[in-house]
TrEMBL record:
Keyword field contains Signal: yes
An annotated GO cellular component: extracellular region
Signal peptide bounds: 1-19
PANTHER family: CELL WALL SERINE-THREONINE-RICH GALACTOMANNOPROTEIN MP1 (AFU_ORTHOLOGUE AFUA_4G03240) (PTHR38123), HYDROPHOBIC SURFACE BINDING PROTEIN (PTHR38123:SF1)
Organism encoding this protein: Tetrapyrgos nigripes
Alphabetized InterPro entries for the sequence: Cell_wall_mannoprotein_1
One Pfam assignment: HsbA
Keyword Signal among record annotations: yes
Domain of life of the native organism: Eukaryota
Keywords: Signal
Protein name: Hydrophobic surface binding protein
Amino acid sequence: MQLLSRSLVALSIAASTFGLVLKRDVTTILSDISNIGTQVTSLDNNINAFPDSGGSLAAALAIHNDAVALNSAVGTATTDTTSNGAFSEADGQSVLSAVEGIEDTILDTLSAIVAKHAAFAALPIGGIPALVLQDLKNLDASTTAFSGALIANAPADLVSEATEIQSTIGTAFDTAIAAYS
């Protein structure tokens, strides 16, 4: 009986420790959002630098690599946000402000990718528009998951503002995806 009690205590301690390891904090989430901002800026810069004609396959693949890195960053942020649980009012406001800080760059990036469709289609090696479309779909799915996690953890009074950001970015993704479909 004593062995069973010790085992249960050990299991309880292990489960508590495991739970603490998985829980994230808002500092981590803010760092994740900053990383997303860095990744979006890199992607935006590379898309805007891609020429309207005469672009290279290497430059197109650099854009793809940026999209993959951004998708990974958004996935990490989603995991961390989900693990965090509900935000306090102050933390929720900090997270919302951080997202608002990168919203314009996200929207610019999606607008720029639409404008570059003809340039990607004109590349001598086909398939780049299909690759861009897949990247857009992947980013849309991961962004939707991230915004859903943020909204689920947001204080009630910030949900409508967070939902509006999600809707604005979602509409921009819809436009970009339609351009490549």
